[in-house]
Amino acid sequence: MEYFPTFIVLLASFLLRSSFAFQPPNVIILFADDLGLGDLGCYGHPSSLTPNLDKIAVKGLRFTDFYSTSPACSPSRAALLTGRYQTRSGIYPGVFYPGSRGGLPLNETTIAEVLNPLGYATAIIGKWHLGVGPDRMYLPTNQGFDHYLGIPYSHDQGPCQNLTCFPPDIKCFGTCDQGVVTVPLFANDTIKQQPVSFPDLEKSYSDFATQFIMTNARRKQPFFLYYPSHHTHYPQFAGKVTTGKSHRGPFGDSLMEFDSTVGDIIQALVDSGVHNNTFVFFTADNGPELLRMSRGGNAGLLKCGKDTTYEGGMREPAIAYWPGRIQAGVTHALTSTLDLLPTVARLAGAKLPRVQLDGFDMSDILFRHGPSKREAMFYYPTGASEKHGPFAVRLGRFKAHYFTAGSIKSSTTPDQDCHETAHLKYHDTPLLFDLETDPSENYNLATPDHPEYKAVLQLIQDVKTDFEGGMVFGEAQVGKGTDPALEPCCAPQCTPKPTCCSCS
Q: Which domains does the chain have, with CATH numbers?
């Protein structure tokens, strides 16, 4: 018995040391814009120059069956940050514009807000696209982020004639919205520059990210950096270092510049000594805008692209990287941007929000290359509605389409199903595809020749019915419309608007 008190003391000492030894990991999420499954070198593109992403793909875990929740910008970003389908938070139908009245509701909990109570420093650089709103109430600094440097919506949502290539007198090809304010660059909730200088923008992001990493590493403070890039959204732009340097024209230059910033971020982790305690995750918001042809990206062998619920619109490249923790490999586990919030919470030891989450912790996949906890994926269109619900459902290897529709943003391909002329169509007997043997969705199995698949369709229908029974649509934020007075202007009292909104 005399050894028992000694054992207790030793155990207590061990537990105390273990608690102090735990260092919350830093978290970095890299989020490309309008990027297809076939756009990166590590996913098979023969001419893309993405050495930094390729390197972390080789050393990290590459996903083959990873999904965004929407084929468009705003809803997919809401889902990533909240771990909830965008329908719950009201980010439908469509995307936000400069004068949108709505935004991501402030009662939604973002990844940044999950990490805040643990003392994380949080920052976002790049494209927000979840609303500005009255008094700039929906900006990231009101959603858990300490710092924000970026553009609050897509860079084509405003006159972008200043989007110049090098030499400076050569304009980049592309069109942007007219009749609204020029594109502003925000620093926290203040406009730093309007219009923003696109050729200089990426260097500003890279410098900010590097400084943010180095500062917090020196302070020994855990950090969360969210980098939703403008690249490779049309019209593409790039700075002096990468313009004309790729083999894919302006799209390739834009992708190359994004990859270069990824390299700068990884190097900053190495230089600051926190490389081995940082979880890095890369993916994209939705598929390529095929309307732009070679300027719109590539979905690889997947069907259609942006703004459709075919695989090309929502199935994305994804890479998880953490030296010494995540072993190199490839996973075919069914996963989604929804899964990032619960995964990050688990890694950091944070509490989950007390709301209905749609994401699952990916730890078993990341550290043991195990199976996914996710059984199904629900495909909502850009214009989501309670009337139609999800257009398609994936359960295991099978995907059923209840509704299909093409889009102007996926036009120009030989496949007529992708075009805007392929109007919304309800399938009384859903189309059924085996995505393991037919990822291009060419061969419908729900035909009289395949009666054996009736049971599969019934199982998918049961899962869909159960899911929809628990889906509560939030108030439609995009549906609140727009007000020109809400367009961000660096000189609020100036006239005439919007042309007077210009500050260096």
A: 25-374 (3.40.720.10), 392-474 (3.30.1120.10)
